[in-house]
UniProtKB/TrEMBL annotation:
Main location class: nucleus
Pfam families, per the entry: EVE
Entry protein name: Thymocyte nuclear protein 1
Residue span of region Disordered: 1-49
The organism of origin for this protein: Balaenoptera musculus (Blue whale)
Subcellular location: Nucleus
Residue ranges of domain EVE in the record: 56-130
DNA sequence: GCCAACGTTGGC
DNA sequence: GCCAACGTTGGC
């Protein structure tokens, strides 16, 4: 279950058991708000610019279709995010330590793609800012298959998606993107679906 | 629903 | 600290 899943509103800690019921409202933005706790984060194409580029970009996966995990529905789509108070949610349910380290490394206001996983049409659906708050839908859905096509081409040509974590670190539910990766993906919005 | 890929656990 | 067994992720 390292996949991200959120709970309604101010959701609190991951392992709360129990009837999902109402959660007490927390002002705490949750793990995703991240203070940099830092550390030895893994080097990826996105994390190696040694300080000159202070911003980071992220991709966060969540499942938009219902699926029970230990009796709890892990579904959390971008529509669900929009429906939260302030369109903001707590990104809990991440257990993988590497993904958790990335959550801790996030800084407020950094931009993140919302990715729908384990569903009929996997792909990037929208943009969020770390808090985690809805920003906007993508101008068009960017399917996994299209990203993969570019990734494969870029491996040959040295293009921006050549090392994209979505393909090189599969199963990582929270992952960093370099600015080049982020900008390239944004540029796809303006193009015809391939 | 299948199952490959990969992470985690735990005995030794 | 190795590594086999087991569990999870997530595309298909």
């Amino acid at each position: 279950m390292p996949r991200a899943r959120k709970r309604p509103a101010g959701a609190a800690r991951p392992d709360k058991k129990g009837p999902e019921g109402k959660r007490t409202k927390t002002e705490n933005p949750g793990e995703a708000s991240a203070k940099v706790e830092n550390s030895s984060l893994q080097e990826t194409s996105a994390s190696k610019d040694c300080g000159k580029n202070l911003s980071s970009y992220w991709l966060m996966k969540s499942e938009p279709e219902s699926r029970l995990e230990k009796g709890v529905d892990v579904k959390f789509s971008i529509e669900d995010l929009k429906a939260q108070p302030k369109q903001t949610a707590c990104w809990d349910g991440v257990r993988n330590y590497q993904a958790r380290n990335f959550l801790r490394a996030m800084k407020l206001e950094e931009e993140a793609f919302f990715y729908h996983s384990n569903c009929r049409e996997p792909g990037i659906v929208g943009l969020m800012k770390v808090d985690v708050q809805f920003v906007r839908m993508m101008k068009r859905f960017i399917p996994l298959a299209e990203l993969k096509t570019h990734h494969q081409a870029h491996r040959a040509t040295g293009g921006p998606l050549q090392n994209m974590a979505l393909f090189t670190r599969q199963r990582l539910s929270v992952q960093p993107l370099s600015r080049e990766e982020f900008d390239f993906i944004l540029s796809l919005e303006e193009k015809e679906p391939s």
